[in-house]
Specification:
With 93 residues, this protein is an all-alpha fold. It is built from three helices and no strands. It starts with a helix and ends with a helix.
């Protein structure tokens, strides 16, 4: 297990999630004129709006996380580094 890769991939995913959340919130406010429905228990929350926001934000955040993890893998070396480290350990044993 490569702890460096775990840190790099988790950091990239976390940063992508934070950035995508800000983009989605800003886009929602620009498109609808009011803030995003983060709390579905609000009395003013329209269920259609909450569902639409959940679908849009989930898709955008998911794509951002995948893209960020792929870019981190290219930068770090990703799973190939893990395979090479495992092979090196096996050769030493």
């Amino acid at each position: 297990m490569d702890i460096g890769w775990k840190i790099a991939s988790a950091g990239a995913a976390a940063m992508a999630t934070m950035l995508a959340t800000k983009v989605v919130d800003s886009g929602w406010k620009a498109a609808t004129g009011h803030s995003a429905p983060h709390d579905p228990e609000e009395p003013e929350a329209d269920y259609k709006e909450v569902l639409l926001f959940a679908l849009i934000s989930g898709a955008i955040i998911g794509v951002a996380r995948v893209f960020a993890t792929q870019q981190a893998s290219k930068w770090y070396g990703g799973p190939e580094v893990n395979k090479a480290a495992e092979e090196a350990r096996k050769k030493r044993s």
